[in-house]
Amino acid sequence: MQTSCKGMWGRAAISAKLTRFPWLQTTPDFAALLEMLSRSKCTSVLRRSIQSGSGSCVSSSVRSRSANLALEERHCCLTYRRRISTETVAEMSEEESYRAAKPFNTIPGPRGPYSIPYIGTRLLFKPFSDYPMEGIGHVLNGLHEVYGPIVRVRMRSQWVVLLEDINDIQTVFRKQEKFPYRVPVQPDLTYAERENPRLHRLTNVQNTNHIFDSNGEEWQRIRSPLNVRLNRPTSAVGYLSSQEAVAVDFAHSLYRLQSASPQVLQELFFGYAAESIAVVCFNKRLGFLSAQGEPNEEALRLLQCYKAINTAVSDCMFGKRFLYLFFRDSFYRRYSEARAATLSHADTCIKEAMLELEKMKREGTLEEDEPNFLLSLLSEKTFDYLDVLGVVDQFMTAGSDSEKLAAEILGELGPHGALTADALNRLTYMKAAVNESMRIHYPVPAGPRRKLPFDTVLSGYQVPKGTNAIANSSRVAISPLCYDEPARYLPERWLRKDGGQRDRAIPPLAHVPFGFGPRMCIGRRFALQEMYLAVVKVLQAYRIGLQDNEGHLETTFTPFCGPAKPVAFTFTPRQ
């Protein structure tokens, strides 16, 4: 026999019973739930539930716990569920979907000896396979060809999931905490621990060295002032003229050295990139690139150190090198020497800038609005010396139809015109061409990676909290699900019509060569400006061709994308 909720089951009585569940009284619409219970007819199951303190009715509706309740109790819960916040419903739905998903260890991927920490990763490369270590991008793509859109693979000591499905990638990067966690650069951390305790700051629970790759609140402390200086739309414009001077020297050097070997030209490209970022970091030329001749001896040594660091990071990122973690092998000694040289150089430049800053303050000649990156860092009250050293070091280390493109440039600037901020905004086809080049030849072997802050379902599989997920953006870049005719070089796909729409909308996160979200590359605007300037100054002066008109360009990664063998260009002066 059912009993009315009035009387002993009136509103006051129910409210008193529910005080056993203090967490419930803080949930959305608690008053509405109380009213619902007091007006409904409760079965004996519901009454026993509240009297015993089990809270099965309440917890199933608010905390997503399953229970075998009577029909009326379940109806009450479902009715209340409609009234609580959408966010709570979403959380319950995700919990349920996670439990229903296939287990993590059933995700397709190489098994057997490939599962052994460190060794398993090494087996993916020569001499155990056809891929050299520099072909890491091809290995990752090959894993997707064999195992599908989600792959579980051992990288060093951890399990990692590789993703090529744009929906999975969007799920990962839209479910991030306030401070997204990024896997630190292990060689830098090892170097700091062993060689330079002054740099080794344990700043948060991840024990991450913030000089090289911080996380958590320490990352936010450093990143926030940098965003003001570097991440605004106009941040790079102040350095346009100084970077343009480097680009002019680059164009002259290309013509002077065009008969040189392709290897020499490849070195020239690296020198241009280093000199372009040096004028931003140190507000002066360092001699990596000169229109008159070779770099000076000191600059050449420093340039080789930066190249050695980049190559070492690439080797360690995917497991080729790991013995250095346990003892100081020859690889580690070479890396340590290169790292010490670059830090020493940055240290010298910063101390010189500190003296200059003090002098300008004394003489009253300090211009607050003048673009001087290093002086602005030194003026930042929340930064100490090691913060400045780390930022500068990271900056220096991390660094089509050409005639149609040339026509836009020459029509806008003429053969000798300077590239202004206004002109740069109007060169829409050039920007589209750069975007398309980065899509066809993705600049890194894979896209951004994140450590999952929550249990997540990807492609129908459980992926536990703490797992590293890597977006294989180079696969997404050639997916017909994201691009029409993905094999074609087609800059027009990036152009917007008058209404702001493209011919085909490109899905969010399909093209993220500089990363995504708060952890996007801090030097993105400067790197793009550097590329734009190189394209403008070279095409203003020359027509570009190839000595061997090969249809397909093989690429390698060290750690950034480059030709597997040097490309033989030709440069013909324009009339």
From TrEMBL:
Cofactors? heme
Keywords (A to Z) from UniProt: Heme, Iron, Metal-binding, Monooxygenase, Oxidoreductase
> Which residues of the sequence carry a binding annotation for heme?
521
Which Gene3D superfamilies does the protein's record reference?
Answer: Cytochrome P450 (1.10.630.10)
Which Pfam families does this entry report, sorted A to Z?
p450
One GO MF term on file is: metal ion binding
Which PANTHER family does this chain map to? CYTOCHROME P450
Q: Which family does it belong to?
A: Belongs to the cytochrome P450 family.
Q: What is this protein called?
A: Cytochrome P450
Give the species: Batillaria attramentaria
